[in-house]
Amino acid sequence: RGSVITLLFRDENRGPERLNYCPKSHSQLGQSWGSDPGLLVPPRQRPRCPPTPRPLQNLLLLWTFLNCGLGGSAQGPGEWTPWGSWSRCSSSCGRGLSVRSRRCVWFPGEEPCWGDSHEYRLCRLPDCPLGAIPFRDLQCAIYNGHPVLGSQKTYQWVPFYGAPNQCDLNCLAEGHAFYHSFGRVLDGTPCSPGTQGLCVAGRCLSAGCDGLLGSDAREDHCGRCGGANESCLLVQRVFRDSGAFAGYWNVTLIPEGARHIRVAHRSRNHLALMGGDGRYVLNGNWAVSPPGTYEAAGTRVVYTREAGPEEMLSAAGPTSHDLLLQVLLREPNPGIEFEFWLPRERYSPFQAQAQAQALGWSLRQQQPGEVVGQPPERPAAPATYVPRIPTPAPDPCAPCPDTRGRAHRLLHYCGSDFVFRARVLSRRHQAQETRYEVQVQLIYKNRSPLRALEYVWALGRCPCPRLDLHREYLLAAQRLISPDGTQDRLLLPHTGYARAWSPAEDSRVRLAARHCPR
């Protein structure tokens, strides 16, 4: 009599399925079961194997004993077939799911395969049009006009979300105070409105960062799916500069690529955020912004201010360009906590800049201005006659942003073509530009010769920084040549370096010159 070996396919939906294996010859015993499609036959078509000679039959039994009884494969789990292709998305718009499956091949005596036979992933399609009927509503509407509950009475059904299992098709009878469960919802149905989970086989699953539903894969702080924070570093510090004057003070530069940004403090001061173009995102120009969500540097910044003195900024990131964090001081600074995660390749430049901020002295200039909507308390004036002083005409130009700081000085000194000391002789507005005539008194850095009298140009009729007549400044300017070569100008960049000259500022500039990259 011939020898028949039985194989089992295991499918979680249909259970084990037997297949009979009939070896054709001794030389074919070493081949895998799938190498010859003719070797696998359905169970109801059990083949009549040709008689096998007894010596060959004994050899077959010995081979089976050695490979199935003593070999490790028979004692371990079965083997999965390769994954099939992904199915079409379960939805025609919005979010849905796609599924693929595989089968388990196992011998008698083996354990079933380890793992899942089906895998689900999230698929995203264009948003559904306004007025489109939600998927769960369509499933409830199938039973409209059909008798249920063992009576001939019919109802109109709408989704009911108050039942315990949100992946059951729970439908409320319109105009009545009861609901009925029609079994499970179809796979791909949202668990509930406004949530990210989808129902799969009666369970509410959320997608991991790999797009697979039910996956535990999560992004690390560096933005890598399934990572362990190896490619980024945490910056966590406290800014404790007390501040001798009211006004805007630089706290830190938040570099491009920063993630998981968090800033918090408890005081009557206000956090301010400036973009790379020199414009304030919030709390700029002495005006307090309302709490809310603001777009900045390619991310959303959430600004909260509690009824007490607590204020907070947070952003998921990553930032598409640098942001400057400042504080608008109205009282001594008790400390500002900030933290963010930086890619490793951006940490060293940030650290170098932080060290540059430690150079020199921490002198700050008082900025005239008053926080709009929150004027400081003033003591009551004595009941005596005070002569009326004429109020000066309001300045049509808005206050310039605070650009003081050691990092700002180092950045402009190293990146400018000219750094020199000059006295402002005249100022003239021409179209949308401002031209200063200056007398050069001392040159710290120049890439071409400077004359004793030069014109320095600034953009706008209210340039920042603004130069007062007959005062001496330390200026960092760039050379700007028009494409046709007809104009050769010294340009003072917007929010550039222009400090009133003093012996202390002279020492700081000379110190900054030592730290420019060679």
UniProtKB/TrEMBL annotation:
<dbReference type="GO" id="GO:0031012">
    <property type="term" value="C:extracellular matrix"/>
</dbReference>
<feature type="disulfide bond">
    <location>
        <begin position="93"/>
        <end position="128"/>
    </location>
</feature>
<dbReference type="InterPro" id="IPR045371">
    <property type="entry name" value="ADAMTS_CR_3"/>
</dbReference>
<dbReference type="Pfam" id="PF00090">
    <property type="entry name" value="TSP_1"/>
</dbReference>
<dbReference type="GO" id="GO:0006508">
    <property type="term" value="P:proteolysis"/>
</dbReference>
<dbReference type="InterPro" id="IPR013273">
    <property type="entry name" value="ADAMTS/ADAMTS-like"/>
</dbReference>
<feature type="domain" description="NTR">
    <location>
        <begin position="397"/>
        <end position="516"/>
    </location>
</feature>
<dbReference type="Pfam" id="PF01759">
    <property type="entry name" value="NTR"/>
</dbReference>
<dbReference type="InterPro" id="IPR018933">
    <property type="entry name" value="Netrin_module_non-TIMP"/>
</dbReference>
<dbReference type="InterPro" id="IPR010294">
    <property type="entry name" value="ADAMTS_spacer1"/>
</dbReference>
<keyword id="KW-1015">Disulfide bond</keyword>
<dbReference type="GO" id="GO:0004222">
    <property type="term" value="F:metalloendopeptidase activity"/>
</dbReference>
<feature type="disulfide bond">
    <location>
        <begin position="104"/>
        <end position="113"/>
    </location>
</feature>
<protein>
    <submittedName>
        <fullName>ADAMTS like 5</fullName>
    </submittedName>
</protein>
<dbReference type="InterPro" id="IPR001134">
    <property type="entry name" value="Netrin_domain"/>
</dbReference>
<dbReference type="Pfam" id="PF19236">
    <property type="entry name" value="ADAMTS_CR_3"/>
</dbReference>
<dbReference type="InterPro" id="IPR036383">
    <property type="entry name" value="TSP1_rpt_sf"/>
</dbReference>
<dbReference type="InterPro" id="IPR000884">
    <property type="entry name" value="TSP1_rpt"/>
</dbReference>
<dbReference type="GO" id="GO:0005576">
    <property type="term" value="C:extracellular region"/>
</dbReference>
<dbReference type="GO" id="GO:0030198">
    <property type="term" value="P:extracellular matrix organization"/>
</dbReference>
<feature type="disulfide bond">
    <location>
        <begin position="89"/>
        <end position="123"/>
    </location>
</feature>
<dbReference type="InterPro" id="IPR050439">
    <property type="entry name" value="ADAMTS_ADAMTS-like"/>
</dbReference>
<dbReference type="Pfam" id="PF05986">
    <property type="entry name" value="ADAMTS_spacer1"/>
</dbReference>
<dbReference type="InterPro" id="IPR008993">
    <property type="entry name" value="TIMP-like_OB-fold"/>
</dbReference>
<keyword id="KW-0964">Secreted</keyword>
